[in-house]
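S1.2 Input.
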Amino acid sequence: MLHLFKAYQKAEGRNGDCLNGAIQLLEATSVLIANFTDTRPITSAEDDRLQCNARALQWFTSWKDAVMSDLQDTAIVKRKKLMSQETRFDMKSTILGFESLVRRKQKTHPGTSINAARVNSDSVENIFCQQRAISHGANDNPNYKQFMYGMNTIILTADTAVVATLE
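S1.3 Output.
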């Protein structure tokens, strides 16, 4: 898609400048897609792919800040100019969380690597599913006591393979 937009922009000549924002968005998302589907292992927290992810996140943050600082637009118009707050949060959490995972892994197990394409949230989702099952079924907003009771039960009954993936 990025290639097509750039080719279309070039074909449009001076009128193609109106595509600058869309192309910047595609460039930032293309970097993230390429890095999170990359099967090459990351062996260092200094890996250039992590730096590229951070630059993409900075672009998204700058975009949000620019839209939100526009005094002429109403809050509704500003929200329409951006991705949803949930999408921005998920993207930020993914980028920062993965970088944190790499740094923690390198600190606790030097010399090992992480393959970004193979990392997923299944183990975390399994805990949430177990929490919901223990905490009175479809209760997706348990109180502190319910959550802690469920968490203790999950930890005490967890299979060692599941516990190992959470560490």
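S1.4 Remarks. The beta strands are 41-42, 114-115.
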